[in-house]
Write a structure and sequence with these properties.
The structure is a homodimer. In chain A, α3 crosses α4. Chain A has one domain: 3-Layer(aba) Sandwich (Rossmann fold). By secondary structure, chain A is of the alpha/beta class. In chain A, the strands form 3 sheets. A 6-stranded mixed β-sheet of chain A has the order 5-4-8-9-10-11, sandwiched between helices. The first copy, chain A, is 34% helix and 34% strand. Chain A is built from 7 helices and 11 strands. β3 of chain A pairs antiparallel with β5 of chain B.
Chain lengths: 194, 194
C-alpha cells in the first residue's frame, strides 16, 4: 500500500538496523484519518472472509484494529498484557516476548468474547519476529476459533515472523514491507523488486 | 447521552459498589460503531474550541480518542505507561495511581508531540477519582499547552475526580454519569433527577 510507505518515508525514523520509529502516526501519536485508510485497506484485503471478530494486542494495535472493525462492522477484542479487577476469570493466555520492550509478558483474552463460531482477523501494527501474532494465533486455537488471516500495518520481512506464519498456512497481509533498515534509511520490498 | 446509558444497562456489570465492568464494549472488547458515536458526541460537545490535539492514556482511552480525532480531524496522542526503545528522550511524565489495577505507574508523553501552541482535549474511558485525568492535565501544563476540556465516556460522580477537575475550572463532559453502583445494579444521574 503506497500510502503506508509514503507515511514511513515522510515520518518514520530508522534508529538502527532493527528498530523503526513510527511514533508520529502509530505507536504514540496516531493519525486517525490515516488509520481509517488502513482500516479500509484491511477490510478490502479480507473481503469475503466472513470475519466475525478482530483480535489485536494493546496498545498500538488498537487504532488500526478499531478502524478495521468500523469498516467491517464487527467487534474488536484487544489482548491485555496485565489482568485487572475486571479481567480475572476464564482467561485464554499466551507468552509473548517483546524485543522493543525487552521483556516477556503474558497476554490474556477473556474466553467469553472469543467463541468456537468466530472467524477471526488478527490485526497488529508491526510484524517482525511474529511473537505477538503467534501468541494471538495460539489464543484463537485455544478458543477453537477459525483464523481468517493476519493483517500487519508494517512487516519487517528481514525478520522471520511473516515466513513462520505463512508456512503455517496463515494468510498474511502487510500494508508495507520493509526489506532492510539502516540508520536514517528504510528500504521497501517494491523498491528492491523494481 | 442516552446511548451510553443504554449500553451500560444492557451490557455493564456492577461487580460491587466501586467497580463497573464494561469489558464487552470498552475495556477489552470494543464496539467500533458505538465508539464512532462517542466520537461524534465529544466532537459536538467541544465544537468551536479550536482543538488541535487529543490526549488520552493507553489502552482503553485509545478507541474513544481515535474516533473523536477522526471526527475533529486532529491527531491523537496516547500517554504510555512504559517507556520503550522508541520512547526514551524528551519525556513529560506524571505519576498515576490506578485503583482497578492497584498499582502506581509513571505515564509519559513525548514533548515532541505536545506543544505550547496546542489546544488539547483530554479523552478517557472512565472518570472516577480523576487520577489519570489529573496526570494528563499536569503533562499538558508541563508542555505549556492549553486544555480545552476533558471528555469521559463514563463518570462515576460518587467519586471525586469530576469535582476536583471542575473546581480547577476545567470543562468536563461526561457521556454517562453514574451516581451509585450496587452489585448487579447501576444508577444514573438523570434517573435520580427524574
Amino acid at each position: 500500500m503506497k500510502l503506508v510507505e509514503e507515511k514511513i518515508k515522510a515520518e518514520g525514523k530508522a534508529l538502527d538496523s532493527q528498530v523503526l520509529k513510527v511514533d508520529s502516526f502509530m505507536n504514540h501519536q496516531v493519525d486517525p484519518k490515516f488509520m481509517k485508510q488502513i482500516g479500509d485497506a484491511f477490510a478490502k484485503a479480507f473481503h469475503g472472509k466472513r470475519i466475525t471478530k478482530i483480535l489485536t494486542l494493546e496498545s498500538s494495535g488498537i487504532a488500526p484494529a478499531v478502524m478495521t472493525g468500523l469498516v467491517l462492522g464487527v467487534p474488536v477484542l484487544f489482548g491485555r498484557k496485565k489482568t485487572s479487577l475486571t479481567l480475572q476469570n476464564g482467561l485464554l493466555s499466551a507468552e509473548v516476548y517483546s524485543f522493543t520492550k525487552q521483556e516477556s509478558s503474558t497476554i490474556s483474552v477473556s474466553a467469553e468474547y472469543l467463541q468456537q463460531t468466530d472467524v477471526v482477523l488478527i490485526i497488529d501494527d508491526f510484524l517482525a519476529n511474529g511473537q505477538a501474532a503467534l501468541g494471538l494465533l495460539d489464543i484463537c486455537r485455544q478458543a477453537g476459533a477459525e483464523v481468517a488471516g493476519i493483517g500487519a500495518v508494517i512487516e519487517k520481512v528481514f525478520q522471520d515472523g511473516g515466513r513462520k506464519l505463512r508456512e503455517q498456512g496463515v494468510m498474511v497481509e502487510s500494508l508495507a514491507k520493509i526489506t532492510a533498515l539502516e540508520e536514517g534509511e528504510v528500504f521497501f520490498e517494491e523498491e528492491v523488486k523494481a
